[in-house]
Amino acid sequence: MNKMVFMGMLTALLFIISGCGHSNNVGEQSIYEDNLVIFEDDSSIISNDNSNINIINNNPISVIITDKYGKVLKSNFNTGKILSVPYLNQDDFPTGCESVSTVMALNYLGIEITVDEFIDYYLDKDYLEEIDGIYYGQNPDNYFIGNPKNIYGLGCYAPCIVKACKKFVGDKFIVENLKNTDFSKFTHYIDNNIPVIVWITTSLKEPFVSSSWILKDSGETFTYLGNEHCVLLIGYDDIYYYFNDPIDGITAYRKDIVEQRYIQMGSNAVVIKPIQ
């Protein structure tokens, strides 16, 4: 008897712990002094909704002043740049980090679309199916696996997002798949005021083998990595890359760890840029 993969307690548990963009505790200890937030672990800093000044490990290279909505009001870098990209969270889209990050990029470029509209009308979705104990499904390169609006969704990769965006951006924008591009080259886009959609992991945790299924089109076995997460690159400096993270807000992660996780997750990235 056929049934959708998202039915059944065992399968549900698997997808809860491995789907795209699920929040995990970062584990860093924090010190709160008025509006100052400092994380003692040097791998990351996560802005607090009530904080206006975020200093990375007392490092004067990296000072960001934001309003309570996360809009960057002032930054102070020796080198680098940070874009003031309006922030959206994924609270209503538990596994929708790809869609939320993409909509942030689109809105920043002046393309008016909501996350609901992107998911409902443009994102191709498919569900895994069980036949005689074996799961079958599409490739996440082409389809979002599951539903981004519930906790049982998995995720998708760069080609799927490119395909969705090309359905509606029109002839004023180029949507480009940057898969396998060296991460350090993305700073060129930031310098030109263009954010980049990138795939890393939730809170930079190690990816792990989560689940596998038979691809319907090729018959090959596809292995999905857990902790997959999509964020929007908005800046960089000497030490950190800065992101609009749909879970954690405006977030800075150390460059070397970001680049490692990016490679582990298949070096997926997308850029949407105006045609000059």
CATH topology: Cathepsin B, Chain A
Structural class call reads alpha+beta
Number of domains: 1
Number of strands: 20
| Helical residue percent band | 10-25%
Return the CATH architecture: Alpha-Beta Complex
- Indicate the radius of gyration in whole angstroms: 19 Å
Average pLDDT works out at: 80
Which regions contain 5 or more consecutive residues with pLDDT less than 50? 1-17, 22-63
What is the N-to-C succession of helices and strands? EHEEEEEEEHHEEEEHEHEEEEEEHE
Shape: globular
N→C terminal distance: 54 Å
CATH class type? Alpha Beta
Beta-strand residue percentage:
25-35%
What does this structure look like?
- This protein has 276 residues and is an alpha+beta fold.
- It has one domain: Cathepsin B, Chain A, CATH 3.90.70.10.
- Helix content is 20%, strand content 33%.
- The chain is built from 6 helices and 20 strands.
- It has helices at 9-18, 97-108, 115-122, 158-166, 187-191, 255-264; strands at 3-4, 30-33, 36-39, 44-46, 53-55, 63-66, 72-76, 81-82, 125-126, 129-131, 134-137, 144-145, 173-177, 196-201, 208-215, 221-226, 228-236, 240-245, 249-254, 269-274.
- The strands form 4 sheets. Strands 4, 8, 13, 14, 17, 18, 19 and 20 form an 8-stranded antiparallel sheet that branches. A 5-stranded mixed sheet has the order 1-10-11-15-16, covered by helices on one side.
- Strand 18 (240-245) and strand 19 form a beta hairpin.
- The protein starts with a strand and ends with a strand.
- The relative contact order is 0.20.
- Mean pLDDT is 80; it is low at 1-17 and 22-63.
